[in-house]
Design brief:
The chain has 335 residues and is α/β, with parallel strands linked by helices. The protein is built from eleven helices and 16 strands. The chain has two domains: 113 residues, Four Helix Bundle (Hemerythrin (Met), subunit A) (Up-down Bundle), CATH 1.20.120; 205 residues, 3-Layer(aba) Sandwich (Rossmann fold). Helix content is 37%, strand content 18%. Helix 2 packs antiparallel against helix 5 and helix 5 crosses helix 6. The longest helix is centred in the middle third of the chain and has 27 residues. It is globular, with a radius of gyration of 19 Å. The structure holds 5-S-methyl-1-O-phosphono-5-thio-D-ribulose (MRU). The site of 5-S-methyl-1-O-phosphono-5-thio-D-ribulose has 17 residues, from helix 2 and strand 9.
Length: 335
C-alpha cells in the first residue's frame, strides 16, 4: 500500500479551480478531483470526495467564489451547494458568511473564503490546547470517525486535541474506531495517526462496550457536525452509542468543534436534519456485495448525542460545560 505524502493538502485553492484530495480512495491511492464550478464542488461534497464539517464549509465557500469568477448566478450557486449535504451546519454557516457580504465581487468573496480557511486552522490549534488541558497525564483516549487535517483546514478538532495532548506527552493510549460503513476511522484517522507517528490501535465499532467495560478509556473525544442551542450534538453515526456506553462505564465525553458548528436557531437535537445515505454504502464494500443481493438497509450517517451525556464541549472561545443552554448562549451569543 502506498501511503500519500504527509504534505498532501485535502483542499487546494488555485484561484480558478479547487483541487480536492479524493478521500474516497485514501489511503490506497492519492488522487485529486479538480472542480471549476459550484455544481462540481457540490457534487464532490455530496459524493464525499471532501468530507468533515469544517472542510465541506471551506469547500463550499470556494465553490461560490468559482461561480462568482465565472459570472454565474450566486443565489443558484449557494442553493446547490447548501443542498449537497444536510447535517453539518458549517456548510450553511460558511455560505452565509459569503452571502452576507452582499457582493458578486469575486476578489472580495475569495478573501472571505481564505479567511474562513485561515480561521479554521487557528481555531483548531486553540481548541487543541484547550482540550488537552482537560486531559490528565497518562490518559487513554478513544476517538471516532475522522476529525483531523483531512476534515478541516489542518490539525483537526477532536484529532487536534489528541495531537496536542500527544505532543505534550499526556497520552498513554490512543484508540480509534473503524467507523462503518464509510470507514473514516480505518482509512483516514489511522492514516493521519501513522503520519504523525502517534501509536494507536483500531477497534471494531462493536467493540466499544468491551473496551470501556475493561476500563481502557478515560476520555471519548469526538467532533461535531451540528450543535443545537441546548448542547445536543449531531456527529458521525455511532457517537451516541459511544456516549451512552461511556456514561454507563464512567468514561468522560469531550466534543470538540469550532463556533461555526453551533446552530443557535436549532433548539434541540431532535430538530437537526439527519442525512440518510444510499443502502449500497452499507450493503456493498468497494463495489462488492457483502449482503445478499436485493437486501434492504437503513443507513442514517449521523446521530444525536443528548447534551446530558457530554462532559465538555471545547470550542475556540472556551470550554463549555452544563448547563449548555446557558454556556452556549454566553460564549456564542443570542439567537
Ligand atoms: O460523513 P463525514 O465523514 O463528513 O462525517 C464527519 C464527522 O462526523 C466528523 O466527526 C465531523 O464532521 C467533525 S470533523 C472535524
Amino acid at each position: 500500500m502506498t501511503l500519500p505524502d504527509a504534505a498532501v493538502q485535502p483542499i487546494q485553492w488555485h484561484g480558478d479551480a479547487l483541487e480536492l484530495l479524493d478521500q474516497r480512495v485514501l489511503p490506497l491511492r492519492t488522487e485529486t478531483v479538480r472542480c471549476v464550478s459550484a455544481i462540481e464542488v457540490a457534487k464532490a461534497i455530496h459524493e464525499m470526495v471532501v468530507r468533515g464539517a469544517p472542510a465541506i464549509g471551506i469547500a463550499a465557500a470556494y465553490g461560490l467564489v468559482l461561480d462568482a469568477r465565472a459570472g454565474r448566478d450566486l443565489v443558484d450557486a449557494a442553493g446547490v451547494l447548501a443542498a449537497s449535504r444536510p447535517t453539518a451546519i458549517n456548510l450553511h454557516w460558511a455560505l452565509a458568511r459569503l452571502t452576507a457580504l452582499k457582493t458578486t465581487d469575486a476578489d472580495r468573496l475569495e478573501a472571505e473564503a481564505q479567511a474562513i480557511f485561515a480561521e479554521d486552522l487557528d481555531q483548531n490549534h486553540r481548541m487543541g490546547a484547550l482540550g488537552a488541558a482537560l486531559i490528565e497525564p497518562g490518559a487513554r483516549v478513544l476517538t471516532h470517525c475522522n476529525t483531523g487535517a483531512l476534515a478541516t483546514a489542518g490539525h483537526g478538532t477532536a484529532l487536534g486535541v489528541i495531537r496536542t495532548a500527544w505532543a505534550k506527552g499526556q497520552l498513554a493510549e490512543v484508540f480509534h474506531t473503524e467507523t462503518r460503513p464509510w470507514l473514516q476511522g480505518a482509512r483516514l484517522t489511522a492514516w493521519e495517526l501513522q503520519q504523525e507517528r502517534i501509536p494507536s490501535r483500531m477497534i471494531a465499532d462493536a467493540a466499544v462496550a468491551q473496551l470501556m467495560q475493561a476500563k481502557k478509556v478515560d476520555w471519548v473525544i469526538v467532533g461535531a457536525d451540528r450543535i443545537a442551542a441546548n448542547g445536543d450534538t449531531a456527529n458521525k453515526i455511532g457517537t451516541a452509542t459511544l456516549a451512552i456506553v461511556a456514561k454507563h462505564y464512567g468514561a468522560r465525553v469531550m466534543v470538540v468543534a469550532p463556533s461555526g458548528t453551533f446552530d443557535l436557531n436549532t433548539l434541540r437535537g431532535a430538530d437537526i436534519p439527519i442525512e440518510t445515505r444510499p443502502d449500497v454504502e452499507l450493503t456493498h464494500f468497494r463495489g462488492e456485495a457483502i449482503a445478499p443481493e436485493g437486501h434492504r438497509a437503513f443507513n442514517p450517517v449521523f446521530d444525536v448525542t443528548p447534551a446530558g451525556l457530554i462532559d465538555a464541549i471545547v470550542c475556540e472561545k472556551g470550554v463549555l460545560t452544563a448547563p449548555y443552554s446557558e454556556s452556549i448562549r454566553t460564549h456564542l451569543g443570542k439567537t
